[in-house]
Amino acid sequence: MKKIDLHTHTDISDGSETPEAAVRLAKSLGLAAIAVTDHDTAAGVKRAKAEGEKCGVEVVSGIELGCGWHGSEVHMLGYGVDPDDRGLASVLDRIVRDRHERNVKMAKLLSDDGIGIDVAELERRHPGSVIGRPHFALCLVEAGIADSVKDAFNRFLDPGRKYYVRRHFLSLEEGAELIIAAGGRPVIAHPLQYKLSDEGMTELLEKAVSAGVCGLECRYSGYGEETVQRLLKLAVDYGLCPTGGSDWHGSHKPHISMGSGEHGELCVPYDYLEALMKR
Ligand code: AMP
Ligand code: FE
Ligand code: FE
Ligand code: ZN
After folding, report:
1. Residues lining ligand 1, judged by CB closer than 6 Å?
2. 263: three-class secondary structure by DSSP
3. Which of 120, 126, 202, 227 sits CB 3.0–4.6 Å from 223 for a disulfide?
4. Is residue 276 within a helix (H) or strand (E), and if so which, with residue range?
């Protein structure tokens, strides 16, 4: 069976590796296809596709958008988006400006407590990348204030923690509309991450379907077979295509391996991609 990974992050957002390195890793792992799904940007897609052509890996254009949902956020993947789409570019520009303002506010809160993080320096160090809380987390680790990225989030950067600043989110409808207008297929990412009740999940999926979402990420790092079967049933019930991916971030999330998840539990068949792209 041909295996794929439809959820990966590069250093164009908060992954550790370049788009080219991500594709070369996919090749070395024997994956038939990967989607590059950076947070709020499709700027790595062309580079990944060029590398994919060189080494013989199918690269699917992708993006991952944060959408507001009841005071929290739900992530929406978009597959097949045109990275040059004007409408998409203009909304993403706005999101990056919002993020910059939010990053400045977080840096101010940190500096009030004597922790110096220079946003301008971060932006210089990661030219063309979408800068977010993961970059702050790495700074806190480098400064010896946190033991790991996870520890930095748990103690300082998660919602409700001292240095968290909420940013502006698109609504679910706006996210789906934007992806569809850019030629893509919207998919709800890692559905268990939102800790929804059964009723909450029903509400999310009903809203998602009416917004034009056409897929549900049923296979994901850490999801065991029982979970996967439950999600596959939900996908059938709501007429959604099942998708799957690891959410690989390279060394920034060292417990996740491309294509195989946390301990080999992840296996995403190529058929998922074919069915999704026919939608
Ligand atoms: P941001 O979009 O700047 O708010 O950052 C969100 C990103 O940070 C997510 O997409 C994850 O990649 C990462 N993240 C969020 N929460 C955690 C956590 N508890 N541990 C590790 N990474 C996290
Ligand atoms: Fe991330
Ligand atoms: Fe996500
Ligand atoms: Zn992701």
Report:
1. 14, 39, 66, 132-134, 149-150, 153, 158
2. coil
3. 227
4. helix 270-277
Assigned token pair, 276: 């999704």
By C-alpha distance, which of 71, 85, 44, 48 is closest to 179? 85
Is the distance from CB of 90 to CB of 192 less than 8 angstroms?
Answer: no
Instruction: Report if pTM > 0.85.
Output: yes
Q: Tens of pLDDT along 204-246?
A: 999 999 999 999 999 999 999 999 999 999 999 999 999 999 9
> What span, in angstroms and rounded, lies between the C-alpha atoms of 34 and 117?
34
Between CA 190 and CA 253 the distance in angstroms is: 16
User: Which letter does DSSP use for residue 20 in this model?
Assistant: H
Any residues with CB less than 8 A from the CB of 16 and at least 6 apart, and which? 249, 250, 251, 252
Tell me how crowded residue 267 is: count the other CB atoms within 10 A of its CB.
14
The alpha-carbon radius of gyration of the chain (Å, integer) is 18
pLDDT tens-digit map of 49-58: 999 999 999 9
Answer for the pair 43, 154: CB distance below 8 angstroms, yes or no: no
Pocket test for ligand 1, best of 95, 133, 194, 217 (most atoms within 8 A of CB): 133
Site to probe by mutation for ligand 1, drawn from 7, 8, 13, 14 as the one with most ligand atoms within 8 Å of Cβ, is 14
At position 3, the amino acid (one-letter code) is K
Query: Treating both helix axes as pointing N-terminal to C-terminal, what angle do 198-211 and 172-181 enclose, rounded to 10 degrees?
Result: 40
